[in-house]
């Protein structure tokens, strides 16, 4: 088989996965993996497989692109962040001698998932990286920021931080005022204040660390029951076919409701994105996230980015799912008062995605009626749709359009 001529677009995701398992040739496997990951960027195992093939072939830019594309789809996927960090340490820092690139990736990871309950592994690896570079002030800031982020491995974190402070406190007293790592500009003032509060006394500062740890433990304890109720944490193509996992979505929603009730909206946003990893194929889950981002965060631009992504990467192969994405987008823009944008989406649905489809015809007419659009818009649309239905010999649509065009004439 000539792998360069493979056309995989007609295969379902399950067919792609089944065929990829049987392939021994990496060139052919790469083609299948490209298609799988393009459709399901949350599929961590396949993201890792594809990046490994490109790395083995020495194509490091494409390997990096696999990680960045997956994280662009959902930057809360901590499993992919961990794999990407390890990959960069091996290929950028050790293999490529590009420590700034690795530093950049660590910073991106801590910014996106530093507050994730399971983020300690990334924080710890960040410490190891800076130890190799002998940046003690930065290490101090990493430990302190991780502590304030309330990661779940709090005891291990405090144990390591305490040992680090005990060994290097005298030097850290000078570094905290003389060095200003740009990447920790928001965290450094708080750490500096705690050094000043301790009056540069090590025992007093360690007491402050323990005080912060107690606060973090209280927050962790509050969330442990919720975290313990979540079994679906990673993506699998069969997740939505598993009734137990589908039912578990209520556990995610209860967790989110707790954070919203306490006005922890950024934590709630993180939970929505985490939920969209195992439930990547669930359009209702995406809609809930969009509603939250719009209603609680007021982040309309983020909502538009999500709709743009869903339009370009439909989460389902069936026609109704694709139409639901576009109709939801049109309804969203209507709620924002962007009637021209909403109208363009309705026209795209009717003219390109689903001509003569009664459901979307009705949706457009209702849209124009809701916004008190020009009656001529509706009439022209109905007549144009009727002409298309007749040409397509779509008898059912033609009858529906004839009746509704007549009704519209009589009503007006």
UniProtKB/TrEMBL annotation:
It is found in: Nucleus. GO terms for biological process: mRNA 5'-splice site recognition. Pfam families: HAT_PRP39_C (PF23241), HAT_PRP39_N (PF23240). SUPFAM superfamilies: TPR-like. GO terms for molecular function: pre-mRNA 5'-splice site binding. GO terms for cellular component: commitment complex; U1 snRNP; U2-type prespliceosome. Keywords: mRNA processing, mRNA splicing, Nucleus, Repeat. PANTHER family: PRE-MRNA PROCESSING PROTEIN PRP39-RELATED, PRE-MRNA-PROCESSING FACTOR 39. Belongs to the PRP39 family. This is Uncharacterized protein. It comes from Euplotes harpa. The lineage of its organism: Eukaryota, Sar, Alveolata, Ciliophora, Intramacronucleata.
